[in-house]
User: Which sequence fits this backbone?
């Protein structure tokens, strides 16, 4: 992940950035409260990395947690409710951070 964030930071050096929104996401396993907190922590970790390693201005970055509310997997793709190795692997795409940049080059 750090390699991708470093590449993003390099690309942003030649961009006039207005806003950056960092969204943290989780899979459906665990409680909603736990997943919300985890997604917020993921987003904050990426924001902190962009600020410290990427040299991005702090005022332009917003970090939000979306919890398990926006999965990329479909319910029929990953069946089950117990955290088996197969289910955890299947739900991996849901555990992510999305970064949206608004600006001009």
Assistant:
């Amino acid at each position: 992940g750090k390699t991708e964030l470093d590449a993003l930071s390099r690309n942003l050096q030649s961009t006039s950035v207005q806003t950056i929104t960092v969204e943290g996401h989780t899979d459906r396993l665990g409680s909603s409260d736990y997943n919300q907190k985890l997604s917020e922590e993921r987003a904050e970790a990426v924001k902190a990395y962009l600020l410290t390693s990427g040299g991005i201005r702090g005022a332009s970055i917003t970090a939000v947690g979306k919890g398990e509310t926006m999965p990329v997997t479909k319910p029929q793709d990953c069946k089950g409710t117990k955290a088996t190795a197969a289910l955890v692997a299947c739900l991996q795409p849901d555990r992510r951070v999305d970064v949206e940049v608004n600006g001009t080059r």
